[in-house]
Design goal:
The chain is 80% helix and 0% strand. It is mostly helical. It is flat and about 115 Å long.
Length: 138
């Protein structure tokens, strides 16, 4: 089989259409990938908004229940006593000092400072021993 000779015009046409074809193929891949990425981002946003909607619907139901409860005078009275320190006739209100609450919060702190102190002491001793050993080796 003999090889076909391609004229200069044919080579120029092949190079032109080949370049245009490669550019179009790259553009189509770019559009497909960016559209897919945009679709995934929109799906994630839709999931987030749906979760937020569910939370708001739940909050709305709770608020509607609270509105129904506020129609009851005994609930209003107990709510006012708990939150606004109202009292019935003959009752006394005892306020807990804020400092006592802070002390209770500090007592609940579970940080064990003794372990931190022991670790620091060990680090100092080891540092001293290594320093002394290095100085002796010099």
């Amino acid at each position: 089989m003999a090889k076909r000779k391609i004229s200069k015009k044919g080579k120029l046409r092949l190079a032109t259409f080949g370049t245009i074809s490669i550019i179009l193929i790259c553009y189509f891949f770019y559009v497909a990938i960016s559209s897919t990425y945009h679709l995934i981002a929109l799906q994630n946003e839709a999931q987030t908004l749906e979760a937020e909607l569910n939370a708001l619907v739940k909050e709305q139901q709770e608020l509607r229940q609270e509105i129904k409860k506020l129609d009851d005078p005994s609930y209003i009275a107990s709510f006012a006593r708990e939150n606004y320190q109202y009292s019935r006739e003959g009752e006394y209100i005892i306020q807990i000092n804020e400092l006592e609450k802070e002390l209770e919060a500090l007592e609940e702190d579970t940080t064990d400072y003794s372990l931190i102190m022991i670790g620091t002491f060990c680090a100092i001793v080891l540092g001293y021993l290594f320093r002394k050993k290095i100085i002796e080796n010099l």
